[in-house]
Amino acid sequence: MRYRLWRVAVFLAALVPPLYWLYCAVFGLLGPDPGKVLVDSLGLGALILLLITLAMTPLQQLSRWSGWIAVRRQLGLWCFTYVTLHLSGYVLFIAGVRLDLVLRDLSERPYIIVGALAFIGLLALAVTSNRFSIRRLGRKWKALHRLVYVILLLALLHMLWVVRADLGEWLAYALIGGALLLMRVSVVASGLQRAGALWRENPKKVEI
């Protein structure tokens, strides 16, 4: 397998945060409401991983290093893992494993509905994130996985409803997400590839 050490490093980097948060929860380091802190931390971690996953293609275009793409699927699956833990934490710590409260939140709180839609979208991508699905779906696979852009918008909207008054942090993530989506536009993507090629030929001539 190519980039074995790189893949292992990414795996460990994604594994450490939830283990650290769990350690803090066990030893009472998350304050008076550790369940909510865990849920919020996992949700934010999932958004960050989603942004990092979307950054892999522009980084590959700039550097032409295929190692970025080699870990893109792993990062996407880690994002789904974080979201699953985020949802599980909500059901366990916020709703108290009560189906009636979950259903009530789904009907009364729009941000829960938006988050659920984002989870369903990530589930579809995770299930089809394998070679069998790529062969089975053919051209439809790429179309399906463009759903990630919609998922990003849903995730940002979900976070906006959650933070409400504190918009500074949300705006930073929204700007990063907007920039990553802009890089998908063909003209911008072609410019990145040209800039990357020029930089590799003569780094001193390219201003960054």
From TrEMBL:
Ferric oxidoreductase domain location: 43-155
Membrane topology annotation: Multi-pass membrane protein
Record's subcellular location: Cell membrane; Membrane
One BP annotation, GO: protein repair
Cofactors, names only: FMN; heme b
Main location: membrane
Domain of life: Bacteria
Transmembrane segments: 9-30, 42-63, 75-97, 109-127, 147-164, 170-192
Cofactor annotation remark: Binds 1 FMN per subunit.
Any Gene Ontology CC annotation: plasma membrane
GO molecular function: electron transfer activity; FMN binding; heme binding; metal ion binding; oxidoreductase activity, acting on diphenols and related substances as donors
Quaternary assembly: Heterodimer of a catalytic subunit (MsrP) and a heme-binding subunit (MsrQ).
UniProt record similarity statement: Belongs to the MsrQ family.
NCBIfam families associated with the record: PRK05419.1-2 (NF003831)
Record function comment: Part of the MsrPQ system that repairs oxidized periplasmic proteins containing methionine sulfoxide residues (Met-O), using respiratory chain electrons. Thus protects these proteins from oxidative-stress damage caused by reactive species of oxygen and chlorine generated by the host defense mechanisms. MsrPQ is essential for the maintenance of envelope integrity under bleach stress, rescuing a wide series of structurally unrelated periplasmic proteins from methionine oxidation.
Identification of the protein by name: Protein-methionine-sulfoxide reductase heme-binding subunit MsrQ
